[in-house]
Amino acid sequence: MSLSLDALGVGYQRSPILPPVTATAAAGRLTVLLGPNGSGKSTLLRTVAGLQPALGGAVRLSTAGAEPVDVLGMGVRDRARRVAVVLTDRFDGALLTGGDLVALGRHPHLRVGGRLRDADRTAIRSALSAMHADELADRKLVEMSDGQRQRVLVARALAQEPALLLLDEPSAFLDAPSRIDLLAVLADVAAERQIPVLVSTHDVEAAIRTGQDGWLIDPAAGELGELVTGTVAELSRAAIGRAFDTDRVRFDPGDVSFRLRSSPLDGRSSPERHG
Ligand SMILES: Nc1ncnc2c1ncn2[C@@H]1O[C@H](COP(=O)(O)OP(=O)(O)OP(=O)(O)O)[C@@H](O)[C@H]1O
Fold first, then answer.
1. Residue whose CA is closest, atom 16 of ligand 1?
2. What distances in angstroms separate CA 160 from CA 15, 69, 108, 156, 157, one per listed residue?
3. Which residues pair with 251 in a beta bridge?
4. Is the pTM of this model over 0.90?
5. How far apart are the CA of 82 and the centre of ligand 1, in A?
6. Does residue 265 register a pLDDT over 70?
7. Dihedral of CA 227/230/231/232: which sign?
8. Within 13 Å and on the Cβ side, how many CA atoms surround 270?
9. Where are the domains of the chain?
10. What is the ipTM of this complex?
11. How many angstroms is it from 78 CA to the middle of ligand 1?
């Protein structure tokens, strides 16, 4: 199952914020969506997910040997079965347990009456396990760290058993090691489930270390910006710098990090210890 955008029109009130987007995200691979603040990552993801109207074009899911299906033309219930979305909004359900929350992911698959069956319980367990969150099944959300809560939110999306997983900035509240770890787990999920996983992130360094393919929005290219695609290694060589560099900060592809053009740390040898 791969995702392809065909001249997808992205914008608000009929005004595009990007040129028509044509790109693919392969099954089994983690595709990271990168771009500076305000470049259009969330708007693009929301449009792919069908959460806001496309200004034109198509979003298709293709499986080898079968006709591609048009995501934007699907009914709401059908789309909920195939496309899972994790957004940045804080989840308001603090008294639910992790298991309760993940069970909500089964909702599109339940029959009238909404009782969980064995297959649903298996999907819930497998989603928690894929996110290394088995021990959170009985813990209340209010008693979880941001990182634990994020894993359970992603597990809820996996419990949908989607053909496509979309995540908007899932690592926003996480520390640096947890950000890398979450992206690495998402790469495993893509490989194990053989689905495309498309994730937007501000953490370019973690994305390059863990992602496989990238979609990069370069807002300075052309009138409306440009979407550049490639492997993360290809993007990091020049395109990341073109999109993100400023007068004061530049991306160093050699050690995959942003640096001040003149750093106050230049010439300092090691931290001083006190006490
Ligand atoms: N509801 C809206 N109506 C009109 N324009 C909007 C709306 N929401 C966002 N925009 C504009 O669309 C552009 C892209 O915003 P978007 O939130 O998609 O960018 P982003 O790359 O996700 O940003 P960030 O990295 O800061 O989260 C911005 O210029 C923004 O001002």
1. 40
2. 33, 18, 7, 7, 5
3. 258
4. yes
5. 26
6. no
7. negative
8. 2
9. 2-231
10. 0.98
11. 28
